[in-house]
Amino acid sequence: MKKLSVKRSECKYYLDIATASMLRKKLDKILKRDENSKIKSYMVRSVYFDSLNNVDFYTKLAGTSNRKKIRLRVYDFNSSKCKLEIKKKENDLQRKISLWITKEDASELLKGKYKVLRKYFKEHSDAIYMYHLMVNGCYRPVAMIEYNRIAYTYRLYDTRITFDMNIKSSESNFNLFDKKPLYTSILNDKIVLEVKFNGELINFISDILKPFNLTRLAISKYCLGRKNFYYFE
Fold it and tell me: What is the pTM of this model?
């Protein structure tokens, strides 16, 4: 199983459908789409975990400079494996730790059976950190969020630009491998643009974005996906 660790800047923006379409046409002329979205968008589905006192949710709402979120992610509900990820914000930088685990182990984690992570201890030291974090915080699944993504990549500075659309969530169904889960739309016709890079944003990409007069926002699909919890707690 692979272990991945990435640390980079991440800028997020809301787009309407027309603006997103115009920007994609410009990017299609100069950047390559990643392998999964050459022809059309691909699915991203995540189950987010939070501690017993919802510390990750509240630190995000408070805008705390150092915070985290934990999720299980798949790109195909028929997949035999998925990623357990911890995404940490450290001031202006984002650090993501990822661990590939089996579908069976993911299903056990969703039941609160953290001990399945022990089998990854020898191979991946991050599994130890993930295990103790989830056990000590009594983490449990709280929201499942799904959307369609189109992604562009550029080798220099590990640049990645994504368009996330049709964003929806469930606060009751946490079956990561459900073929037809029921969801609630959380952004209607808005699209989330994310621009990610290490070091600095390449000039020609910055020049393409500039005419659109985009406003950088602190967008959290996780928090948006917990509307029922937030409004009725």
Answer: 0.92
The alpha helices in the chain, defined as continuous H runs, are 17-30, 55-62, 103-110, 125-136, 203-209, 221-224, 227-232
CA distance 23 to 163: 10
Q: Are 147 and 221 in contact (CB under 8 A)?
A: yes
Contacts of residue 203, defined as CB under 8 A and 6 or more positions apart, other chains included, come to none
- Which residues, in sequence order, are CB contacts of 204 under 8 Å at separation 6+? 30
- Residue 103 CA, chain-centre distance (Å), reads 18
Q: How far apart are alpha carbons 72 and 67 in whole angstroms? A: 18
Indicate the range of 15-24, 33-42, 67-76, 222-231 predicted with least confidence: 222-231
Distance CA(183)–CA(171), nearest Å, equals 9
Q: Which helix (H) or strand (E) holds 171?
A: none
Give per-residue pLDDT as tens, 22-40. 999 999 999 999 999 999 9
Work out the burial of residue 70: count CB atoms within 10 Å of its CB; fewer than 13 is exposed, 13-18 middle, 19 or more buried: buried
In angstroms, the CA 118 to CA 128 distance is 7
Q: Alpha-carbon dihedral of residues 9, 210, 165, 225, nearest 10 degrees?
A: 50
| Predicted pLDDT at 2 | 45
Q: How far apart are CA 141 and CA 195, in angstroms?
A: 28
